[in-house]
Amino acid sequence: MSSIKQFQVTFDCADPERLARFWCEVLGYVVPPPPAGFATWDDHHRSQAPEDRGAWFACSDPTGVGPRLFFQRVPEGKAAKNRVHLDVRVATGLVGEERLAALEAECARLVPLGAVRVQLLYDGHDACIVMQDIEGNEFCLD
Prior knowledge:
Layout lengths: L7 E6 L2 H12 L13 H6 L9 E4 L8 E6 L12 E3 L7 H15 L5 E7 L4 E6 L5 E4 L1
Parallel strand pairs: 1-3, 4-7
Antiparallel strand pairs: 2-3, 5-6, 6-7
């Protein structure tokens, strides 16, 4: 039995390009070049039927290590807590006040981008900050 080596994480959302660009800022990801034959993503979007414009967008890790993120427009809004979420690993290996400081610094960077701080979980040794992206999807700073 072969093992899968690559996967992508797919987000259902209202505004795929806006959410993809938010996650590019969070993770240092990039928007891939537009499909062959198009100079820009706007050119590509204009070539589509009006109902298909902006229906999806993607971003990827420029190093090729992290998974591709795919964003697809859906008609319904977010109704409940995520069953799966991303942990943004900004304080790996740190503990106590040093860990807390790294998490708080990243939180301070993300809030002006539109992220929302939900809750700090801290026991004096380990910590994470629960956040929401610009469409209300939960993620953790870990």
